[in-house]
Amino acid sequence: MNRNAIKETDNAGEGLRGSEGAWWRHAVIYQVYPRSFFDSTGNGTGDLPGIARKMDYIHSLGVDAIWISPFFKSPMKDFGYDVSDYRAVDPLFGSLDDFDVLLEEAHGRGLKVIIDQVMSHTSDQHPWFLESRDGRHNDKADWYVWADARSDGGPPNNWLAVFGGSAWEWEPRRRQYYLHNFLASQPDLNCRNPDVRRAGLHNLEFWLERGVDGIRLDAVNFCMHDPELRDNPAKPALENEFLGSGQAQTPYAMQEHVFDHTHRDNLRYLEDIRSLLDRYEAVALGEVGSERSLNVIGEYTQGDHRLHMAYSFDLMGPDSSAGHIKRTMDAIASEVRDGWCCLAIGNHDVQRVASRWTGDRPDPAAAKLFSILLLSLRGAVCLYQGDELGLPEADVPFDALKDPYGINFWPAYKGRDGCRTPMPWQAEAPNAGFTNATPWLPIDASHFELAVDRQQGNPDSVYECVRAFLHFRKRQPALLHGDLEFLPLEHNVLSFVRSTAEQALFMSFNLDGTERIIPLQALAVDGSRLSVRGNPATRQGRTEAESLVLPGHSVLIADIR
Question: How many of the other CB atoms lie within 10 Å of CB of 152?
């Protein structure tokens, strides 16, 4: 096989990035959305003690780390991504002591802990903003992005907020506009101010001193923008590729976002963050939302002096075709080069993959295949809570919605609540065992039958399949450290080889619901060299008469002898 392979070891930063000792390069990171994981207090909302109580469950899956979405003090206008105190746990989730216990429980099981940090903006209730908005000459006057009105009283430019409307809000105390890329209650920090950057680093250090193993940097490319505040140009046609699938068709998608974020000056801030993290041997995972996300990831993870890794929304759109997945991975190889990607097909911001990639009737076999495929590609992995159960998107009625994004754009876009509903732990228990109270979001009726207690011990369940593959993956050098070489696409079947000097695995995924038969000759594979591995938890392909026979949504894994 002489096709272009995606290589594990690269030229720049090879000493660090080619090392098998860099745990983050092949880590599986389990994302916990704390308000929906487990309620230990009976108030209807998940909390930090609830995560600690379920640590055995997380550990038994076979993941390497947990990423905990924000639990800091917040007015919760955007559910914790609007921080009012970076060093305090919101009482809704517990206390600092509760966090320390959680950290101890995770570390005692060999799990790393990554926490969210929001560096680009705060809540409008943060003391920094309360002081900054009060006048133009106080100590925090330049800590946020302020600008004068245009001569007609309008905002300084045409920038739009992701969640709708102008990205500028008038503040009568200062008689100026302030920038907010998301909600008006999330004013943007002026990260060009060195005092702001120092304060951000000090907040990171607070948690690093407590023993966290990594930081997930929310919307990391939004920290700096064009200092001249130039207007964004219009797109030639309405496209809505930004931030993945399921987003509302809003005017935001009608602009080329070339000036409102992802300014090159942001790289200096990333290098300062990396320098701090290196002192604590901690890892930086960045979230990149951009129309050129993979190019940005390449810049942001280049060498060994910026972020360790980053992820985009390129695999969190509606396209689950073999061609799209191959094009995305090829683009990663081309654009990221000596950097590193963390791959994800689901998180708290997009429709659940079991629904997004299969439609209204999710197929358990498809849910198994999606997870196995994600865990077989080259890179670190983020696995979102509940995807190991094959949970479909929950149907949340309008009167139960909490997400301001969904409320603003209903019914064209129902928001993010459908992927944020509570974990179902017990099929027969009230509220699926999540809480004794009314849960903060309703639990979808279809989730009860998919509860953890129904799936554990059932060899045909999505949970047991994902768990088995996670443990299998840990023992396969080719999946942890190997190169990736794609084979020719046939129909909607994605085939590739993962290989190291000691092992080569042939893997084939039928992303269609119907059976496909593919001659091995079309893939340039010698069938006599394949030794097919069995996996009773997965719909399994087979070799027959020099062909691959792949039932709908099936996987074939074979050793190459």
Answer: 5
pTM over 0.90: yes
Contact present, 238 and 254 (Cβ < 8 Å): yes
Active site residue 241: no
For the record, the structure tokens of 150 come out as 């245009």
State the catalytic residue, choosing from 105, 260, 287, 417.
287
CA distances from 64 to 22, 23, 106, 213, 456 (A): 12, 9, 10, 11, 20
Please say whether the beta carbons of 381 and 27 come within 8 A.
yes
Phi, psi of 362 (to 5 degrees): -55, 145
pLDDT beyond 50 at 2: no
Cα gap 134→528, rounded to integer Å: 76
349 is catalytic: no
The better pLDDT of the pair 11, 78 is held by 78
Which residue has tokens 């002081």?
A: 131
- The predicted-structure confidence for 67-121, as pLDDT tens digits, reads as follows 999 999 999 999 999 999 999 999 999 999 999 999 999 999 999 999 999 999 9
- Reading the block at residue 395, the tokens are 């149907």
| Catalytic-role residue among 47, 218, 403, 512 | 218
Q: CA 297, CA 100: separation in Å to the nearest integer?
A: 32
Contacts of 341 (CB under 8 A, 6+ apart): 294, 297, 301, 309, 310, 311, 312, 332, 379, 380
**Tokens, residue 494:** 């994605």
Within 13 Å of residue 505, how many CA atoms lie on the same side as its CB? 22
Q: Give the Å distances, CA to CA, from 293 to 84, 226, 262.
A: 29, 18, 10
